[in-house]
Amino acid sequence: MIQLFLISILSNIGMSGIGFIFGAVSVHVKRVGQWATIIQTALLLIGNITIPMFSPLQNIIPFVSGIEISRLIYLQQNIPIYLILIYIAINFMWLIVGICIFQYSIKYEKTNGSFEVF
């Protein structure tokens, strides 16, 4: 159980990075309402949730490897160490990229944009 909790925490870290990216787009564009829902649905469809088909290309999405690791834990199979390392790296990469894009967006809007038009 502790393993599954740690896996979900890592997924939340990666998805926070995607949230920062949405926040940056929202600060810049100001109208993102429907796009968030569309992208969320697309992530769920290609994210290895409903159909357990795992492709290495899916590792780009923060929670996909976590779902696969969770399946392996429930099936009591060995978890490849490279899958865990990729999972950790991808999630922290999304967090760092998200924070950098958000900070750049805030800085850009402070100098060139307007926070008054929301």
What labels describe this entry?
118 residues, mainly alpha, elongated
Number of helices: 4
Q: Compute the CA-based radius of gyration.
A: 17 Å
The span between the termini is 44 Å
Uncertain parts: none
Write down the overall geometry. Answer: elongated
Number of strands: 0
Structural class: mainly alpha
Strand content: under 5%
Encode the helix/strand succession as letters: HHHH
Q: What is the helix fraction of residues, given as a range?
A: over 70%
Please tell me about this protein's structure.
- Helix 1 (2-29) packs parallel to helix 4.
- This protein has helices at 2-29, 33-46, 64-74, 81-111.
- It has 118 residues and is mainly α.
- The chain is elongated.
- It has 4 helices and no strands.
Which helices and strands occur, and which strands form pairs?
Elements: H1 2-29, H2 33-46, H3 64-74, H4 81-111
Helix pairs in contact: 1-3, 1-4, 3-4
How would you summarize what this structure contains?
The protein has 118 residues and is mostly helical. It contains four helices and no strands.
